[in-house]
Design brief:
This protein is mainly alpha-helical. Helices cover 48% and strands 8% of the residues. The protein is built from seven helices and four strands. Helix 1 packs across helix 3, helix 1 runs antiparallel to helix 5 and helix 4 packs antiparallel against helix 5. The longest helix is centred in the N-terminal third of the chain and has 17 residues. The radius of gyration is 24 Å and the shape is globular.
Length: 153
Amino acid sequence: MAEDMGSTVPRRQLGRALKELRLEARITLDGAAEALQCSRQKVWRIETGLGVARAPDVRAMCDLYGATPELTTALTGLATETKAKGWWHSYGDAIPDWFELYVGLESAASHLRGYDESLTGRSTSTGRRNLLPTRRSGRASMPSRWMRDNQGN
């Protein structure tokens, strides 16, 4: 695996929040870098989630952008969370570098959605094509409202 930078999702959430704060404060990327006494690249990498954000950096950014103390505490906590390793790190090289993003996103998801291709197009007597639900376990896979609204069309 590449250099371990912790979990992708918290880094991206943190970066998005910091960028929004910077834009609300009407500070340019160059202006933020100059005020924070760091490179433009460092600020950009933190905001895009490509770089590790240390708690002191996040605190300084929040102070510069005029964030509330509560938000500063929350974002500093998120910066600490970005260093936490995901469950997949214990598998070493079994999970390729390019796949770590997807595994990280899945582990941070609150729910997963699936796609079902069980709907098929069929002609009706009017010649108009409708998608009719297929049945599974005696239940229609589409809401009954859809069936009621589309009968006879």
